[in-house]
Amino acid sequence: MVTGEQRHGRERERMVAEQLIKRGIVDPAVLEAMRSVPRHLFVDEALRDRAYGDHPLPIGESQTISQPFMVARMTEILKFTGREKVLEIGTGSGYQAAVLSRVAARVCTIERIPRLAARARQTLEAIGASNVWVRAADGTMGWADEAPFDRILVAAGGPSVPPPLLEQLGEGGRLVMPVGPEDAQRLRIVDKVNGQPNVTEDSSCVFVKLIGKYAWEA
Ligand code: SAH
After folding, report:
1. What distance in angstroms lies between residue 166's CA and the mean position of ligand 1's atoms?
2. Taking 80 as the threshold, does the pLDDT of residue 21 lie above it?
3. DSSP-derived 3-state class of residue 198
4. What is the pLDDT of residues 112-169, one digit of tens each?
5. Any alpha helices (H) in the chain, and if so which ranges?
6. Of 5, 39, 55, 70, whose CB is crowded by the most CB atoms within 10 A?
7. Which residues, at least 6 apart from 29, have a Cβ–Cβ distance to it below 8 Å?
8. CB-based pocket (< 6 A), ligand 1
9. Strands 149-154, 85-89: parallel, antiparallel or unpaired by DSSP?
10. Ligand 1 atom, smallest distance to 211 CA
11. How remote is the C-alpha of 154 from its chain's centroid?
């Protein structure tokens, strides 16, 4: 008999092979994290059969858990060695934070909707991700008490990179964020070199809105 866990394990293997490796994700640590984090636990029970599909899924409050490829791509862009302290803006379900927890030393993640933050905290605890700290707040302000960060991942789209995040990015650090109008953004990569932001543009994407003091209005 095949148990649910075995079935989900096979679905993850297939997701990694067909959605990630075929599309050029190569970082072994990222592939291993995507192979091991139980994505189905980050969606509603009714959606578990679709958890490993090639798309985002609703997580309530009009928000979504990102497509697996986008989670892997943003993680790979940040080039982790395992020693980094990372800040994520837009915890949502907590899935991206769980992936980050396997490639970084410590994860601080901020969600503006308290109900989502509370649920993500529970799921992360249930899977034993003990190096993740979840906070309910406006992430466009960053997390000053924990700064500087070696890496920053913004999981929602905004008109520009919020200045507090640039300030809280450490020297030699890297930030990735979807930047652009509501219906079409591009991943923007910012490296901090000698205190100056060095900006490159990556692929196009569509994310839910980043809402806050230094982003869109609610
Ligand atoms: N990383 C998530 C998916 C993110 S969806 C996952 O793996 O499931 C984007 C999330 O960003 C939403 O939950 C939304 O509420 C949140 N968000 C939007 N603006 C924010 C802000 N200013 N600060 C923190 N979170 C924000």
Report:
1. 18
2. yes
3. strand
4. 999 999 999 999 999 999 999 999 999 999 999 999 999 999 999 999 999 999 999 9
5. 4-15, 28-36, 68-77, 95-103, 114-126, 163-168
6. 39
7. 80, 82, 102, 103
8. 63-66, 89-90, 92-93, 95-96, 110-113, 116, 138-140, 155-156, 208, 210-212, 215
9. parallel
10. 19
11. 7
**Could you give the 3-state DSSP secondary structure of residue 217?**
coil
Hey, what are 192's tokens? 């901090």
Residue 10: enclosing H or E segment and its boundaries? helix 4-15
Q: Retrieve residue 40's tokens.
A: 């189905």
- pTM > 0.85: yes or no: yes
| Token pair for 207 | 């994310």
Return the ligand 1 atom nearest residue 64 CA: 5
Confidence of residue 2 (pLDDT cuts 50, 70, 90): confident
Asked if residue 67 has pLDDT above 80, the reply is: yes
- State the Cα–Cα distance between residues 27 and 57, nearest whole angstrom: 25
Residue of 91, 102, 122 best suited for mutating to test ligand 1, as the one with most atoms within 8 Å of CB: 91
